[in-house]
């Protein structure tokens, strides 16, 4: 069977390494590639897939478009975004494993309860991590982004989730929080990483390229709990592998594979 990660750009993705590692553990002779699909081109790409294709991991900028390309569930409907496309038994389903993956990532680092969240960024991944935080008890979120107009979806999501929500310009000084989540490019916070982590008990940077990011390094130096993009990548991949193959693979196997792939890339 064939699977792939689809995005734009996608050459940096380590998803091929971790899914291929899962197939080796499971003894499956499957393929998993990286396919660059231009913005707006996901539907055409999916429509042209033949029956040899089982699943897709879908990353930016296609997560919103994917939500319209298969049978959804409550989570996809709530967030308006998906990251997994699977065709099995005559059905095509789309799911969002970022939510469960973010929850698994947080718990793997000992974060089992959250109160107040500061969210840097307002896109599809930010919405997924917010939903995961609410499942861990979060009751307040501060959204920090460059445009309130482009933050409408996550602000509305917070209201639907029944938590307190406020918006601040991205350059603002954040308030004290239990968990700070960054979904923005690493360079966006490079000059203020130490100041940002000083306001948080834990920091979760979903970015893994470059790795480690300035924010995770600052968090480690400050001695607070750090959750990184490899934790999220491995956590969401566990559910993707289960959806595509019907089998489970340990999260730590996928995370170590991702870390080794990044280390190897750095040596090149």
Beta-strand content estimate: 15-25%
The percent of residues in helical segments reads 40-55%
Q: Strand order across the biggest sheet?
A: 8-7-6-9-10-11
What's the CATH architecture name of the largest domain?
3-Layer(aba) Sandwich
Largest sheet, described in full? Answer: 6 strands, parallel
Q: Name the shape in a single word.
A: globular
**What do we call the CATH homologous superfamily of the largest domain?**
Leucine Dehydrogenase, chain A, domain 1
| Total count of domains | 2
CATH topology description of the largest domain:
Rossmann fold
Give the helix tally.
11
Distance between the termini: 31 Å
Label the structural class: alpha/beta
Q: What's the level 1 CATH class of the largest domain? A: Alpha Beta
User: How many strand segments?
Assistant: 11
| Topology pattern, helix = H, strand = E | EHEHEHHEEHEHEHEEHEHEHH
Outline the low-pLDDT stretches. none
- Look at the structure and give the mean pLDDT: 96
Rg computed from alpha carbons, rounded to a whole number of angstroms = 18 Å
Pfam families: Shikimate_dh_N (PF08501)
Domain Shikimate dehydrogenase substrate binding N-terminal: 5-84
InterPro entries: Aminoacid_DH-like_N_sf (IPR046346), NAD(P)-bd_dom_sf (IPR036291), Shikimate_DH-bd_N (IPR013708), Shikimate_DH_fam (IPR022893)
Keywords: Amino-acid biosynthesis, Aromatic amino acid biosynthesis, Oxidoreductase
Provide a descriptive summary of the structure in words:
- This protein has a six-stranded parallel β-sheet with strand order 8-7-6-9-10-11, sandwiched between helices. A five-stranded mixed β-sheet has the order 2-1-3-4-5, with helices on one face.
- The chain has two domains: 130 residues, 3-Layer(aba) Sandwich (Rossmann fold), CATH 3.40.50; 129 residues, NAD(P)-binding Rossmann-like Domain (Rossmann fold).
- The chain contains eleven helices and eleven strands.
- It is globular, with a radius of gyration of 18 Å.
- The protein has 268 residues and is α/β, with parallel strands linked by helices.
- The two termini are 31 Å apart.
- Helices cover 41% and strands 21% of the residues.
């Amino acid at each position: 069977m064939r699977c792939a990660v689809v995005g734009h750009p996608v050459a940096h993705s380590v998803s091929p390494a971790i899914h291929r590692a899962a197939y080796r553990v499971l003894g499956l002779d499957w393929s998993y590639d990286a396919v660059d699909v231009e913005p707006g081109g996901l539907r055409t790409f999916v429509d042209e897939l033949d029956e040899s294709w089982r699943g897709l991991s879908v990353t930016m900028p296609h997560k919103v478009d994917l939500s319209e390309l298969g049978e959804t569930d409550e989570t996809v409907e709530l967030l308006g975004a998906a990251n997994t496309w699977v065709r099995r038994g005559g059905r095509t389903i789309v799911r969002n494993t970022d939510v469960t993956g973010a929850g698994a990532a947080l718990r793997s680092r000992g974060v089992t309860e959250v109160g107040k969240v500061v969210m840097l960024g307002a896109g599809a991944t930010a919405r997924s991590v917010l939903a995961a935080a609410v499942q861990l008890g979060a009751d307040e979120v501060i959204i920090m982004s460059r445009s309130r107009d482009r933050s409408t979806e996550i602000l509305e999501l917070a209201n639907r989730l029944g938590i307190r929500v406020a918006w601040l310009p991205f350059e603002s000084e954040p308030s004290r929080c239990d968990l700070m989540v960054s979904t923005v490019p690493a360079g966006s916070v490079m000059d203020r990483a130490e100041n940002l982590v000083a306001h948080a008990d834990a920091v979760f940077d979903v970015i893994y390229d470059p790795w480690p990011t300035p924010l995770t390094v600052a968090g480690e130096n400050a001695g607070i709990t750090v959750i990184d993009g490899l934790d999220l990548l491995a956590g969401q991949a566990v559910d993707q592998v289960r959806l595509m193959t019907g089998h489970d693979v340990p999260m730590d196997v996928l995370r170590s594979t991702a870390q080794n792939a990044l280390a190897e890339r750095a040596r090149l």
